[in-house]
Design brief:
Blueprint (H helix, E strand, L loop, with lengths): L1 H21 L11 E4 L5 E4 L5 E4 L13 H14 L7 E4 H22 L16 E6 L2 E6 L5 E6 L8 H6 L1 E4 L1 H10 L7 E3 L5 E3 L4 E2 L3 H22 L2
Parallel strand pairs: 5-9
Antiparallel strand pairs: 1-4, 2-3, 5-6, 6-7, 8-10, 10-11
Helix pairs in contact: 1-3, 2-6
Length: 237
């Protein structure tokens, strides 16, 4: 029983630590906010001598390297070629990753409390956290429901260069996630958790629909095809 209580305390500590990472101020890691994970959930980190390491992230993400989205995608490509036994690699926004760790620890804590008799197993379960996407802009970011596109929350960066961003953000009701999902599947992309708002359409609260920027999507597809071609060339004997 003492070991179970110790495990409960460890879960509570994990929840507090990962919540602190998740709730970091928006000015932190504005550009390089993505981490790279292998298929086993280990994160990429670089060593001073130029070598790299793969290890399960600690609750403060110490030793884990952060990247912008395109650099992270390129690292995934290289890792999958060099370490196919640990593929596929994936890119995650560090806040999204921290939220997933909070969710895991909360579920474990609920099970422990039920086992210890601290809660009744017949209690109404906590509502599940909806799957979300993070949509970034130069001056802020949105957290949106990945199924409906509804804006869950938005953040305005303190060092953003668009003085009108807050007003624009307040006027956005819903992002067109259905159309974006159809598009990225058609070009062979995997489902994102982090994307740029230039590439997705949205509805304003007055009902006006603002479409995506086609040039942004074209550039993304070109970069993806270039990376695939480079991967084939590298993999050829």
């Amino acid at each position: 029983m003492n070991e179970t209580k110790q495990f409960r305390e460890a879960c509570e500590a994990q929840i507090m630590a990962w919540t602190e990472v998740r709730d970091q101020q928006p000015g932190i890691l504005v550009e390089k906010r993505n981490i790279v994970l292998d298929a086993r959930g280990r994160a990429y980190g670089s060593l001073p001598d130029g070598r790299y390491k793969l290890e399960y992230p600690r609750s403060n993400l110490a030793g884990v390297s952060h990247f912008n989205f395109m650099d992270a995608r390129e690292l995934c490509r290289r890792m999958d070629i060099a370490l196919p036994e640990f593929a596929p690699s994936k890119v995650m926004d560090f806040k999204t990753y921290a939220e997933s760790r909070v969710d895991e620890a909360q579920k474990a804590l609920s099970m422990i409390k039920a086992y210890l008799g601290e809660t009744k197993t017949s209690e109404t379960p906590l509502p599940s956290i909806p799957n979300t996407w993070v949509i970034t802009a130069a001056s802020g970011e949105f957290v949106v429901n990945a199924e409906s596109g509804d804006v869950v929350s938005y953040t305005v960066y303190e060092n953003g260069d668009d003085p009108d961003f807050r007003e624009r953000a307040e006027n956005i009701a819903r992002f067109d996630v259905a159309e974006y999902r159809q598009w990225f599947e058609s070009v062979g992309l995997t489902e994102p958790t982090n994307l740029n708002w230039l590439g997705i359409g949205f509805w304003q609260k007055d009902g006006f629909y603002e479409s995506f920027e086609q040039d942004w999507r074209d550039d993304l597809v070109t970069a993806m095809n270039d990376n695939r071609a480079a991967a084939v060339e590298t993999a050829e004997p």
